[in-house]
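INFO  loader      accepted 1 record
INFO  loader      residues=134
INFO  predictor   begin
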Amino acid sequence: MNGASIAIQLCVSDLGTTEAFYAGILDLPLQRPITTLGAPEHLLLETEEFQIIFVEDAAVAQLHPILQARLEGFPRGVGMTIHLAVEGIADIYQELLEEDLEILYPLERKPYGTYELWCFDPDGYLVVLEEPVD
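INFO  predictor   done
INFO  writer      dumping tokens
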């Protein structure tokens, strides 16, 4: 895990769509590592503390057929929230609106010193974006 203490794998419908959301709209350092023989193609969002690994559900179902029925549920990750610190949250908010992505709570300045918005990624995972107030 390259020094990260926590790794979470999320199943997604399409790596390209996921990459467009996390790297394109949110401008996060998403990588598409070279995979070893037999391993599924994936995306990696990594810091010193954690890794989020995105793998297409078809690849996971092929490796673990017992999960097929559960992978077909939508929205995904019910009860799970991904909190991410971002820069340029106002621009991100506008891009989310332009892309017609579902916003749960619009951009708001919170009394605890951050700008915050809640949205769903293209696979239905709840994502909370935060940026400190200058």
